[in-house]
Amino acid sequence: MRRFALLSCALAVAFPVLADQPSVQVESPDLHGSRQLEAQTQAAVVRDYLESWQSLAAAFEQNQASLLNADFAGVARDKLGAAIKSQARLGIHTRYQDLSHKLQFVFYSPEGISIELLDTVEYDEQIFDGDKPVATQHVSTRYLVMFSPAEQRWMIRLFQADPAS
Amino acid sequence: MGVRVGLPSLFALLLGPVALAQSGNMNLPATVTAGSAFSIPTSGSGSGVLYIVGPDQVIRRSVQLGTAVELSASDLSDAGHYVAALAANGTVDSGQFDVLPAAKAENLNFIAVPSRVPVGQHNGINGTAYVFDTYRNLITTPMPVSFALSGISGAPQSRTAITRNGVAWTSIDSASKQGAAKFVAQAGDATTTRIIQEVPGDPCGLTISARPDGKRISVETAPVRDCSGNPIPDGTIVTITETYKGSLSTVDVPLKKDIAQVDMPAYNGATISVASGVVAGNEIHWNGGH
Predict the structure, then answer these.
(1) Which residues of chain B have a Cβ shorter than 8 Å from any chain A Cβ?
(2) What was the pLDDT predicted at A20?
(3) What is the dihedral of CA B63, B66, B70, B76, to 10 degrees?
(4) What are phi and psi of B80, to 5 degrees?
(5) Strand-pair category, B31-33 with B58-64
(6) CA pair distance B50, B94, nearest whole angstrom
(7) Can you give the pLDDT at residue B289?
(8) Tens of pLDDT, residues A55-84
């Protein structure tokens, strides 16, 4: 498992890019909600989120939806799992390599059971048909990610590209 | 976004009109609405394979170049960012586009907490609503969500909040009377209701009286109510303490029909006090009932 040189910060901070690691920048929260987001909570969410990209990449490359189970739940797990099932049925797989994340927390629900962040992310997406590479695209977009706490970690319940807002 | 790479036009020009006719290109839309039919026009001749791949949905389709690829309303329903690639005759045209949530709110995920709340709490009830379209895409364009709390007494309370990143929330006071309250969130035609049980608050004006009962004292509370006059539920513990010459005797008594009653030893000069939770009541100095 890759290790991330991250940690949260009050102001925008860029994390160094090491080989095979995405660069990570955490901006000051722009919270819409009545609850304070503690630095320790931010750090835990960022750590879990970056790890979830590794799970996602492995699941889509190996066509094994079960690799999502530790990090994704609810709608996010359902949709990602369905896409992996489609890939397997069609004989294709996809390689996702995240390159950079610019994160900003935007919501912490009053009761503390939901956190939302925006990730302006860059990644490479490579499509394979069987073992044959078909196309590679460098993607720059924004994801809206919603978390809820589970026993051990923050689980992603919604993972949706959101370029328009 | 319509980002494009890998156009084979240079090779096509070099190889002449036959190769030009066989290579495939496509014209992607920048955005599509989830659950909408759309088409992707292609150019070239012969056959190819179209891939549309994102973390949410994956499509692979054989296509006839030179015609438009028709995607039905049910083909792409998950909002997200997609890579499309058209592979034909050894060349690939690829690009990207976005599928946006449908505009109409169909489902509200509504979290209301707590499910039981004491009466008369300022901002004691929180409601958070997440607005989804019919395909379980979070609708991120701002839209109003109305929240209304109505109970068995008083006028309903209502608030309107505008969603930000798909979420709206509010805080509302609990009512002054106990009972079940309906907490409703509504966005467009989508409505979700939660039931909040409003329960009595802490006892208010907790008072005991005492009377002789043979060699003992019968200690009894006045009917125990909260500050809004709601009766405190049966079973709530009331603690009655008797202090006499440095010794302490404590009895926990559950409320029964609003009242707690207990017999204590009768010591002239004893002090008897009452409390329930963090609320303290009055004290009695026993003087033989005189």
Answers:
(1) 1, 3, 5-6, 31, 49, 51, 53-60, 78-81, 83, 85, 87, 92, 94-96, 98, 100-101, 111, 113, 126, 128, 130, 136-138, 140-141, 164-167, 169, 171
(2) 73
(3) 70
(4) 165, -175
(5) unpaired
(6) 9
(7) 65
(8) 999 999 999 999 999 999 999 999 999 999
% pLDDT > 90, chain B? 75
Domains belonging to chain B, first-starting first, are 7-100 (2.60.40.2470), 107-199 (2.60.40.1930), 203-285 (2.60.40.10)
What sign has the CA pseudo-torsion A154, A157, A160, A165?
negative
Sign of the dihedral defined by the CA atoms of residues A61, A66, A67, A73, in that order: positive
ipTM given for this complex: 0.89
Closest CA to B231 of B274, B198, B277, B200: B200
Cis preceding-peptide flag for B114 (omega within 30 of 0): yes
Which run of H or of E encompasses A159?
strand A154-161
Q: pLDDT tens digits for B196-210? A: 999 888 899 999 999
pLDDT over 60 (residue B90): yes
Residue count of chain A, please give it: 165
Q: Which of residues 85-114 of A touch B (CB under 8 A)?
A: 86-87, 90-92, 94, 96, 106-107, 109-111, 113-114
Predicted confidence (pLDDT) at residue B4 exceeds the cutoff of 60: no
DSSP state of B124: -
Q: pLDDT by residue (tens digit) across B54-74?
A: 999 999 999 999 999 999 999
Percent of chain B with pLDDT over 70: 91
Q: In 3D, which of B216, B131, B123 has the Cα closest to residue B171? A: B123
**At A43, which helix (H) or strand (E)?**
helix A39-62
Both tokens assigned to B134: 């019919």
For residue A109, which residues of chain B lie inside 8 Å, CB to CB?
111, 126, 128, 167, 169
For the record, the structure tokens of A88 come out as: 């397997």
> A164 falls in which pLDDT band (50, 70, 90)?
low
Structure tokens at A2: 């890759």
Phi, psi of B61 (to 5 degrees): -140, 135
CA A82 remoteness from chain centre: 17
3-state secondary structure of A50: helix
Measured in Å, how far apart are chain A's first and last C-alpha atoms?
33
